[in-house]
TrEMBL record:
Key words, A-Z: Pyridoxal phosphate
A GO term for molecular function: D-cysteine desulfhydrase activity
Record domain Tryptophan synthase beta chain-like PALP: where: 17-290
Catalytic residues of the enzyme: S66 (nucleophile)
Protein name as catalogued: 1-aminocyclopropane-1-carboxylate deaminase
Amino acid sequence: MNSRALPVTELESPFYRRAGIRAAVLRLDQTHPQISGNKWFKLLPLIRRLEAGARPRLFSFGGVWSNHLHALAFVGKRFGVETLAFVRGHPEQTETAMLRDARSWGMKIHFLGREDYARRSDAEFLDELAKAYPGWECLPEGGSSADAVVGCSEIWSLLEEGEWSRPDLLACALGTGGTLAGLIAGKPAATTVLGVPVLKLGSEAERSVCSLLEAAGYADPGGWMLDTDGSCGGYARLPASLAHFICAFEQRYPVPLEPVYTAKLFQAVNRRIQSGSVAPGSRVLFVHTGGLQGRRGMQTRIDRALSAFQGPQPL
C-alpha cells in the first residue's frame, strides 16, 4: 500500500480567466478506492505500523455515512485487525451503504444515542470504554490525531515538483481539523493555506487547528486563515443553492463533488475569487479530500433540492 505522486487536474473556464486566476485540484480522491482522500494520509502512520507487523485492536467514532469509519474498516480488513465503530444513531435506523461496507469488511458496529455520543471526547467516557475494551486503541472521530497531522503534512512531499507544488493559495475543507493542520505544518513559506469549515464552529475551528499543531509537535508557521462563511448553515446541510452548484460544477469540470466537504469548499473559494478577494495572477490549488462514498446517502436530497434554486453560480 504505497503512496505515489498525487494527480493534479487543472480547471479551465472563462470564470477563472476573467479573474486572472489559474486553478487546479489536488486529487486526493484518487489515492485509493476505499481509503479515499485525506483518510489515507490521516491513517498513514497507522498503516506503516501495520505494515511493520503491529496488530492493535482499534475503535473509533462517527456517523452512519462516516468516511473515516469506512476507511478504517477497510484498513482492518486489509491487515487482519479487529475494528469497532461507535456510531451515532440507533439500530432500528435504515442500514446505510457505508455501514454495509464496514460490516462486510469485518467492522463491528455499536450504536450510541445522542447523549452518549456527545460524550465521545470526555475523559471519563473514554476511561469507561478503556475498561470495557482493555487493550484496544482509540482513534478520535474523523481520525484527527497528532499522528494524523504528521501523515497529512506528507501530502506536500507527494506533489510533483513544479508550479503546483508551491501554489499561492491552497484551499481545503475543514471538518475535525487534522488535514488542515497537516497542510499548514508542511506548507511552503510563500503559500497561504485557506480552510473552509463545514460546520458552524466560529472561533472553535481555529483553536482546534492550533491544538492539533501543538499536539503533533509543530510550531504554528502562520500564513493560514479560515473562511467561516462557507458552511451553508452547518454540517451536512444542503440548501438548494449548493445542490445546484454541484450539478453545474460537474457539468463544467471533470471533477466529482460531494455535498458535505468538497462542494462547500469550491463554492466558498469561488465566491472569494468572484468578489476579488483573491489577487489576479494567483495560482489556487483546491484539495479534493475524497469522501465520494458518502454521496450515496445524499443523491436523493440533491435531486430534490436542485430545481428549487434559480440564479447564477460562481463558476
